[in-house]
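The records we work with from here on pair a chain with its fold. These numbers are not coordinates but entries in a learned vocabulary of local backbone shapes. To see the layout at work, look at the sequence and tokens printed below.

. . .
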Amino acid sequence: MAGLYYNSNGFAFHRIEDAVRILAELGYDGLALTPDVHHLDPFRVDDAALASFRGLLEEHGLGIVLETGARFVLDPARKHRPTLLDPPQEAHRRVELLCRAIDMAEALGAPVVSLWAGTPPEGLSFADAHARLVEGLRTVCAYAAQVGVRIGFEPEPGMLIERAAEWPALRDAVAHDALGLTLDVGHTLATRAGDPADVIRTHADDLFVLQLDDHRAGVHDHLMFGEGEVDWPRVAAAVADIGFEGPLEVELSRHSATAPSTAAASLAFLRPLFGR
């Protein structure tokens, strides 16, 4: 699972098979697949297609992890809804999607599925929203554990859990061995959560996936490497110091119009730093 990965949400205008070939030719180690309406639609892809795609990954020597941030895969009119925080009659559809992603992960040989909390419905208290999140995560983790897949929880700006400092309380409330942390380096700046390298060190024992993108302090905008304020040598030193061997995943979903060149430039920037 170690190495540099690239999220398929940064290849939104490519067939997923073409994205795999491009990433392999560039020298990436893996793909972070976001199943979406145009990339192995989680509600339409069948076992044969998954087996074929796994064969393609193996042919090109790429590892894989799964992300679940598709914007409109559940509701074409509402971005990222429903979530685990919605009423049970709606939230079950998010659970269904997450369990389907776990099934896909098992079929593709992906060890980790990452997810986030979502934003609570208007008027719902933090305590009630947190309780819904805990319950949903316990359900999803129990399902994942049955097939040996792990769940990486990602703090996301603007959502119920948006800073890494809020992660330990959630981890302890869920109390499931399948649950760990997916940390987006840029988000630590976007939420003013502290120096990214320090945050990595603080949560070293829980890390499943590290997502890489540049950011400016206080602004949630995924930037090309070198265009923001992340101190990348410090981040690379922290990754080395903690001995992190999970995937380093490029997260540039708004760069799909220049996907091949952006992926190439990202690899050229990151490989000298991380030696992968």
In short: The chain has one domain: 3-274. Strands lie at 3-7, 30-33, 63-67, 112-115, 150-153, 179-184, 207-212, 214-216, 219-223, 247-250.
